[in-house]
Specification:
- It contains four helices and four strands; from the N terminus they run αβαββαβα.
- It is of the alpha+beta class and 114 residues long.
- The chain has a domain of 78 residues: Alpha-Beta Plaits, CATH 3.30.70.
- Strands 2-3-1-4 form a four-stranded antiparallel sheet, sandwiched between helices.
Length: 114
């Protein structure tokens, strides 16, 4: 099967995000909670119907994810030339803060939690 131009391969994902957590694919609203947590950090996902891998560029983030949500931690060899380090600029930090506030407001029924 061919890949489209610009599409990321599994090899590229494994090189840029070598710290991975494998877990059973969650159902329903649990999936949105996992994506909301991981969206604050540089992450990629891969998986099928039964298992899913959440891939991170830092080991401490993968540890925190595994501690909060469970799963088996898998570390691949680290290649420093390909490692993706999340260094967001000011606009991206502002966007993430707004996304967190919006997510919290949606979870509390429109009432701000703070």
């Amino acid at each position: 099967m061919g890949r489209r131009k610009g599409e990321r391969t599994d090899r590229h994902r494994d090189r840029s995000h070598p710290f991975q957590v494998e877990m059973v694919t969650p159902l329903g609203s649990a999936m949105s909670i996992l994506y909301r947590w991981a969206s604050a950090h540089s992450h990629e996902t891969t998986g099928g119907m039964q298992t899913m891998r959440w891939c991170f560029c830092r080991p401490e983030i993968a540890d925190a994810f595994a501690t909060d949500f469970g799963g088996k931690r898998i570390d691949l060899p680290v290649d420093l030339d390909y490692l993706h380090i999340d260094r967001p600029d000011a606009r991206e930090l502002e966007r993430r803060a707004l996304a967190m506030r919006t997510g919290i407001a949606m979870m509390t029924g429109g009432k701000e939690a703070w």
